[in-house]
C-alpha cells in the first residue's frame, strides 16, 4: 500500500514548524517526503460536470488545490506560493500543471474531480 503525502495545516502567523515522526520517515523508501504547508482546507469536496461524460474519477491533491488557490485565485507568484507552502518554485509549477490538466479534463471530457481528504497528523 502506498503511503499518501502528509500535509501540515498552518494556523496563523505564529505557527511552529513541527516535523513528521521519525517512524513515518523510516517506512518511506528513497528521499523523505517534504512537508507541505496548507493555509486552509477546501470547502468543496467534488466537482461534477453536467453532463457527466465519463465514469473516470480524477483526484486533486491538497497540494494541487493550495497551489491553484495561491497562484490563480490570490495572485501570488510561483516563487511566493512556494515560500508559503515551503516547497520550491519548480514543485509549484508541477503542481499547477497537474491540477490545471485535471480541471481541463473535467471541462472538456466531462470527468468528475474529487478533492483529496485531509489527513490528521
- The helix/strand class is alpha/beta
Number of helices: 4
**CATH architecture identity:** Up-down Bundle
Output the radius of gyration: 15 Å
Query: What is the third-level CATH name, the topology?
Result: Butyryl-CoA Dehydrogenase, subunit A, domain 3
* Number of DSSP E strands: 5
Strand content: 5-15%
Question: Largest beta sheet: what is the strand line-up?
Answer: 3-5-4
Fraction of residues in helix? 25-40%
Main sheet: strands, sense, barrel? 3 strands, mixed
Architecture blueprint of SSEs:
Elements: E1 7-9, H1 22-26, E2 36-38, E3 46-47, E4 57-60, H2 62-73, H3 78-85, H4 89-109, E5 112-115
Parallel strand pairs: 1-2, 4-5
Antiparallel strand pairs: 3-5
Helix pairs in contact: 2-3, 2-4, 3-4
Structure commentary:
The protein has 121 residues and is of the alpha/beta class. It has a single domain (7-115), classed as Up-down Bundle (Butyryl-CoA Dehydrogenase, subunit A, domain 3), CATH 1.20.140. It contains 4 helices and 5 strands; from the N terminus they run E-H-E-E-E-H-H-H-E. A 3-stranded mixed beta sheet has the order 3-5-4. Helix 2 (62-73) crosses helix 3 (78-85), helix 2 (62-73) crosses helix 4 and helix 3 crosses helix 4 (89-109). It is globular, with a radius of gyration of 15 Å. The two termini are 19 Å apart. Mean pLDDT is 81; it is low at 13-23.
Amino acid at each position: 500500500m502506498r503511503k499518501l503525502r502528509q500535509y501540515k495545516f498552518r494556523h496563523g502567523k505564529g505557527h511552529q514548524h513541527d516535523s513528521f515522526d521519525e517512524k513515518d520517515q523510516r517506512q518511506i523508501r528513497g528521499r523523505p517526503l517534504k512537508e507541505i504547508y496548507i493555509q486552509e482546507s477546501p470547502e468543496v469536496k467534488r466537482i461534477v460536470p453536467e453532463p457527466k461524460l465519463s465514469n473516470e474519477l480524477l483526484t486533486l491533491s491538497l497540494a494541487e488545490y493550495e497551489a491553484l488557490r495561491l497562484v490563480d485565485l490570490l495572485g501570488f507568484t510561483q516563487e511566493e506560493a512556494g515560500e508559503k507552502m515551503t516547497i520550491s518554485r519548480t514543485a509549484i509549477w508541477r503542481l499547477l500543471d497537474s491540477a490545471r490538466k485535471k480541471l481541463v479534463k473535467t471541462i472538456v471530457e466531462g470527468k468528475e474531480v474529487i478533492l483529496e481528504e485531509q489527513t490528521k497528523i
